[in-house]
């Protein structure tokens, strides 16, 4: 069955160079049986033409609030759509949406619709990284807008960085995932994310470079797939959907307690956090002063959360991560056995790899298989991982019944 057949997709196009990708996106969607209507902003018409969009979609293209029956196009379209996808979404339009402006057809119908709204950001990398843009994105996320992308790479301006609109094929995959059956419906999933911090004195701590982006992306993807998600997070600046339960922790011991407080009713445990392996038992009560050229700090091991989960909760599906600088697969297989996991998600870290990047590429290791997921936005990787984790869940439960 084609899950996009007769799905009504409203495509909003704003005035960015990535609008040139929209005709191909419309072609792909209509080939899948979707019904696509298009709304153009005034600036978008500088990049794509109405006859092209009409020909590919075989549907009307709208420009003004005065288009449509009874001059109420914004209401008509807002009620018609199963999903509103704005691609590309410029920095300007993100700012308009986040502040509730309604000064053209597209922004007006976004306020009027009760359908899910997805934005696919597209802009210069510095515009995307600007604190004002990031603040606006947080506002939209907190108001239940879905954000797909952006990708990372060479941009039309010649610069390289985050801000590329996802490719039409990637957007098509996300739309498939959005309309797909809720494969994790009623599953209880606990996910850890981010770094931990181990204090040395009142002003210093041991930690690592983890940003938490992969764990947060997994939490969102699991929630979209229908799961009841608990996210246990070390310190990050990231935000998460309000419907996801978030537990904030600082140290490895705090994360350990939080995890085991939530595993009794858990179906799947995903350990994506970069937990500090060591801590000091002798935290200084005052700032350590610079005196000698060298100092000695004695470290002891933190609890191994993933390994203990396997010992105490053997029926839970356990997913671990292996961030490695060398011998990726060898170390991943070793961790799979040592931690007694059902799956290890392995990725290389280092300069421009893994931590803080918006992209990732991983190898998914199980006892029976090794699947490589090519480089993509972490949000896209997360969707693919949730699908693989669901397959592992079904396989393990099928084996348990044999």
Report on the structure:
The chain has 13 helices and 20 strands. α1 (22-31) packs parallel to α2. β2, α2 (50-57) and β3 form a beta-alpha-beta unit. The longest helix is centred in the C-terminal third of the chain and has 24 residues, at 378-401. Strands 13-12-9-14-17-18-19-20 form an 8-stranded mixed beta sheet, sandwiched between helices. The chain has 2 domains: 8-179, Rossmann fold (3-Layer(aba) Sandwich); 188-401, 3-Layer(aba) Sandwich (Rossmann fold). Helices cover 34% and strands 24% of the residues. The chain has helices at 22-31, 50-57, 73-80, 91-98, 105-112, 125-129, 131-142, 168-179, 213-224, 252-260, 305-312, 328-338, 378-401, and strands spanning 8-13, 35-40, 61-62, 83-89, 117-121, 146-147, 151-154, 160-164, 188-193, 198-201, 204-206, 228-233, 245-248, 268-271, 278-279, 300-301, 317-324, 343-348, 359-365, 370-377.
The DSSP helix count reads 13
N-to-C CA distance? 30 Å
In total, how many domains does the architecture comprise?
A: 2
Beta content comes to 15-25%
> What is the chains' assembly state?
single chain
The largest sheet has its strands arranged as 13-12-9-14-17-18-19-20
Question: Notable features of this structure?
Answer:
single chain, 402 residues, alpha/beta, Rossmann fold, 2 domains, eight-stranded mixed beta sheet, six-stranded parallel beta sheet, globular
Layout: helices, strands, pairs:
Elements: E1 8-13, H1 22-31, E2 35-40, H2 50-57, E3 61-62, H3 73-80, E4 83-89, H4 91-98, H5 105-112, E5 117-121, H6 125-129, H7 131-142, E6 146-147, E7 151-154, E8 160-164, H8 168-179, E9 188-193, E10 198-201, E11 204-206, H9 213-224, E12 228-233, E13 245-248, H10 252-260, E14 268-271, E15 278-279, E16 300-301, H11 305-312, E17 317-324, H12 328-338, E18 343-348, E19 359-365, E20 370-377, H13 378-401
Parallel strand pairs: 1-2, 1-4, 2-3, 4-5, 5-6, 9-12, 9-14, 12-13, 14-17, 17-18
Antiparallel strand pairs: 7-8, 10-11, 15-16, 18-19, 19-20
